[in-house]
Amino acid sequence: MPTVPDGDENVTIWSWLRAAARPTAIVLCLSVIVAGCQIVPGDGPWMGGAQSTSTEALPFDLIDLTPTTVVAFRPEPATDRPSVTSGFAAGGRVAVAPGDVLRVRVFEPYEGSIFPTIQRPGADLGSQRVTDEGTINVPYAGTVKVAGLDLSQIEQRIASQLAGKAQDPQVIVEFVADRTHTVMVSGDVRNPGRFSILEGTRSVVDAINRAGGPALSATLPASQLEVVVRRNGQVTLTIQYSDLLAGGDIPVQKGDEIVVRPNIRTYTVLGAVQKATNVELTKSNTSLLEALGQVGGLSDDRANKTGVFVFRMGDIQNNPGARARVFRLDLAQPVSIFVAQQFGMQPRDVVYVTNAPLYEYNKLLTAIYRTFSIVGVAKGSVIPSTTF
């Protein structure tokens, strides 16, 4: 400290202290700012910040989950439904259409007629493509209208047109090439293409199997595949592939388009849990309790058991005016365990477990302690060890 005249020593000391206090104050202010940043939880707001019922930007409904209110949000029960094995009932009608190729054979029971008996060759009239007018030509029967008829009806019509020309003719009509009774399979399958429903393709699962099955990989498991069926330009079925195999199969019709595509279904768990992460929704009836179990449960030293929230967006695509929902669960109540078992998770749900108030206070105290530690270090580095 510089030498000063007698009488001015006290003034000089206070001036020096004020000068020394300036950097200390700056460090203190900066420390408080840093502490304020540390106080803001990196894992989201705590209980007090999730109490509002709506905001202007994103209106939502706050619903307390209780044994009464959870009834409306239960997951669909897993039921075993018989898979569809045939797209047509016994004796079902398969109509012929222009473009199909038919094989016609005609026999007579006696020798010497215009058609041979079944023991002799020559009754096979070959294959014919159904014309755009829906007709074929049969010797002695002439032009036969076949479009819109099934095979047995075509056989009867040919026999009737041969009446008076052949003796009790026996007619057999078969499909050779199916041009119209096909379904198209595309997307994430091994061999996309068009497949005939007259050659064993009776259901959606049959069609996907005919296409070689889903093209699975480590990043695209079967549980994350979606199947869409379009019929006459309209979507008639949208279902997860796993649900399709579990009994959601349906018969196919000619002209159906089947698309297999990725549909990543996940939910997110954040806040005071053992492991905050995105979790794959592998089944449609996953409960909230299972969702918490997938991340190891709540963090004992951080979690506020009275503040477990599920954030769910409304179906904006199909209902633009849909409101979001926030579900609140108090796990401090024993009955809430049963409530959590009954609440069904949906894709894109966000589960957030708030911090306990004591944990927030501890974070604040820690920040203050660090602040004063920084101030102490600053003082030690600024104030020289001089004896006044």
Strand order of the largest sheet: 1-15-14-16-12-13
Radius of gyration: 39 Å
Helix content: 25-40%
**Distance N terminus to C terminus?**
9 Å
Biggest sheet layout: 6 strands, mixed
| Helix-strand makeup class | alpha+beta
Number of domains: 4
Please tell me the CATH architecture of the largest domain by its name. Answer: Roll
CATH class wording of the largest domain: Alpha Beta
CATH superfamily of the largest domain: Outer membrane lipoprotein wza domain like
Number of helices: 7
Mean pLDDT: 77
- From the spread of the alpha carbons, the general shape counts as rod-shaped
- Quantity of strands, as a count: 16
| CATH fold annotation of the largest domain | Outer membrane lipoprotein wza fold like
Strand fraction band?
15-25%
If you had to describe this structure to a student in words, what would you say it looks like?
The chain has helices spanning 9-39, 151-161, 204-210, 241-248, 288-294, 335-342, 357-382; strands at residues 60-64, 101-107, 124-129, 135-138, 142-145, 170-177, 182-187, 193-196, 225-231, 234-240, 257-262, 266-271, 277-280, 303-312, 324-329, 350-355. The longest helix has 31 residues, at 9-39. The chain is built from 7 helices and 16 strands. Helix 1 (9-39) runs antiparallel to helix 7 (357-382). Residues 1-5, 23-43 and 85-91 have low confidence and may be disordered. The chain folds into 4 domains: 9-42 and 361-382; 47-77 and 285-355, Outer membrane lipoprotein wza domain like (Outer membrane lipoprotein wza fold like, Roll); 101-177, 2-Layer Sandwich (wza like fold); 182-262, Outer membrane lipoprotein wza domain like (Outer membrane lipoprotein wza fold like, Roll), CATH 3.10.560.10. With 388 residues, the protein is an alpha+beta fold.
